[in-house]
Amino acid sequence: MSKTAILIDDDRDDLEFLEEAIKQVDHSVKCIPYLFCDDALRRILNDPSLVPNYIFIDMNMPRWNGNQCLKELRSDPKLKDVPITMLSTSMPAPVAEVLKENGANFTFEKPKNFDDYEQILKLILN
Q: Alpha carbon 81 to chain centroid distance?
């Protein structure tokens, strides 16, 4: 059975890197990338049939930051059970705690190498 992951990151290279790592861990996951949180929100919130299995959000983005996006997604009842992962180049413990309080299931710093990305995603996707 195929699964869907929404990927939100304003850096195209980071989006491709994340998508490739997800595909390596679970090739059945269909990734839907977005460069901006508000575009992703509009699609998710206005399409009742779109309930992703996973959502990945970068913290530092223009227009809406990751925390604002997280709060908005968590306000939608259809997404209450969807695991949301927050990622960033830097993820200090106090920031990770706030994100978890706001509804994030997982937080992590973007790894520098592909193998580390795969190891983190194995924990999240399984």
A: 14
Q: What is the CA radius of gyration of the chain?
A: 13
The token pair at 60 is 């530092």
CA angle 118/79/70 to nearest 5° reads 70
- Tokens representing 48 are 């009742």
pTM higher than the cut 0.90 = yes
> Alpha-carbon distance 87 to 58, whole Å?
5
Q: Residue 56 burial by CB count (10 A; 0-12/13-18/19+): exposed, middle or buried?
A: buried
Report the alpha-carbon distance of residue 52 to residue 84 in Å, rounded: 10
Query: In the chain, which ranges are E strands?
Result: 3-8, 29-34, 54-58, 84-88, 106-109
pLDDT in tens, 52-109: 999 999 998 888 889 999 999 999 998 989 999 999 999 999 999 999 999 999 999 9
